[in-house]
Design brief:
The mean pLDDT is about 95. Helix content is about 40%, strand content about 10%. Helix 2 (about 45-60) crosses helix 3 (about 75-80) and helix 9 packs across helix 10. The protein has twelve helices and ten strands. Strands 3-4-5-6-7-8-9-10 form an eight-stranded parallel β-sheet. It has a two-stranded antiparallel ribbon with strand order 1-2. The chain has one domain: NADP-dependent oxidoreductase domain (TIM Barrel). Helix 5 links the parallel strand 6 (about 125) and strand 7 (about 155). With about 300 residues, the chain is an alpha/beta fold. Bound molecules: NADP nicotinamide-adenine-dinucleotide phosphate (NAP). NADP nicotinamide-adenine-dinucleotide phosphate (NAP) binds near residues 36, 209, 263 and 267.
């Protein structure tokens, strides 16, 4: 497949328009977006990274996930360059460090992110992970940013089920629209309790590292005979099957990160793969859903 294959591009764009996840406020988002961890850190590949994000947006992966942590702000700066002149085409997500998530720091941290991104608002602001600041204080800060128009909505990241329950029982905690957590075929802990809990509470999951970045699991996903057989059936690559699996419901948005052009295309193309129940059963046999509580996987 190439970028110049118009028919394929149209098929991908249509699939990303069709396969959406709806936030509690009714906003629909394509079920595949784009991650940016490690982007913006090397001037040598900057142009390539910008182009990758722009190609992804053009194909319909218009959600872009970044964080003040990534490259100490360099990832946000790169995203700012990539979305210049096309801000309205993008659903922009950034994250605040836990140690900036108190009332004394959060407004400044957000303002700094906005400056680096070259925008006046974020579509979604996430607490990157839980730190020492009481949840009630972070929520108050998020709600103030929302009222001031600096962010449209907020959510959390790396929260396990007990954290979510606590959030839910804290004033205005129910205004959180998502929880971004590690989720892929080789790491299914959340299938036991967190994902069902969030579904019950109408709060979609945002799946990070959906391609199992690094480590032995990636090799396992690439070499597993069942994944390979299913990939052959659809004439795609094994990691595209892993991505299609992550977005198999309408409750999970995957945010793969890709710089190589062929990776951007492959990830967007995964939205066109509709796995059958038989495929899913076969994958369940090799990568079973846990039958007991497993602590949340975190990178
Ligand atoms: P990932 O998306 O699972 O994997 C990224 C790696 O896979 C890169 O090396 C990329 O290479 C490669 N790749 C991309 N598409 C591919 C394809 N179709 N075939 C083969 N290889 C492919 O890992 P991630 O970056 O850890 O996670 C995605 C995003 O989630 C991050 O970028 C970040 O935005 C977010 N995240 C959030 C948290 C959190 O705590 N909230 C933690 C981790 C990540 P190239 O870049 O060279 O194309």
């Amino acid at each position: 497949m190439s970028l110049h294959d118009e028919k394929k591009r149209t098929e991908i764009k249509n699939a990303l328009k069709k396969r959406v996840v709806t936030l509690p406020d009714g906003t629909s988002l394509p079920s595949i977006g784009q991650g940016t961890w490690y982007m913006g850190e090397s001037p040598k590949v900057k142009d390539k990274e910008i182009k990758a994000l722009q190609q992804g947006i053009e194909l319909g992966m218009r959600l872009i996930d970044t964080a003040e942590m990534y490259g100490n702000g360099d990832s946000e700066r790169l995203v700012g360059e990539a979305i210049k002149g096309r801000r309205d085409d993008v659903f922009l997500v950034s994250k605040v460090y836990p140690h900036h998530a108190g009332l004394d720091m959060i407004a400044k941290a957000c303002e700094n992110s906005l400056k680096r991104l070259g925008t006046d608002h974020l579509d979604l602001y996430l607490l990157h992970w839980r730190g020492r600041v009481p949840l009630a204080e972070t929520i108050e800060g998020m709600e103030k940013l929302r009222k001031d128009g600096k962010i449209v909505r907020w959510g959390v990241s790396n929260f396990d089920t007990d954290d979510m329950k606590e959030l839910w029982n804290t004033a205005n905690g129910k205004n959180s629209v998502t929880n971004q957590v590690l989720y892929h075929l080789g790491s299914r802990g959340i299938d036991f309790d967190l994902l069902p809990w969030q579904r019950e509470h109408n709060m979609p999951i945002m799946a990070y590292s959906p391609l199992a970045q690094g480590g032995s699991l990636r090799r396992q996903l690439l070499s597993d005979p069942t994944i390979r057989e299913i990939a052959e059936k659809y004439n795609v690559q094994p990691l595209q099957i892993a991505l299609a699996w992550t977005i198999r419901s309408n409750h999970v948005i995957a945010i793969p990160k890709a710089v190589q052009e062929e990776h951007v295309l492959a990830n967007a193309e995964a939205a066109t793969i509709e796995l059958t129940q038989e495929d899913l059963n076969r994958l369940d046999e090799v990568f079973p859903k846990p039958n007991r509580k497993v602590p949340l996987d975190i990178i």
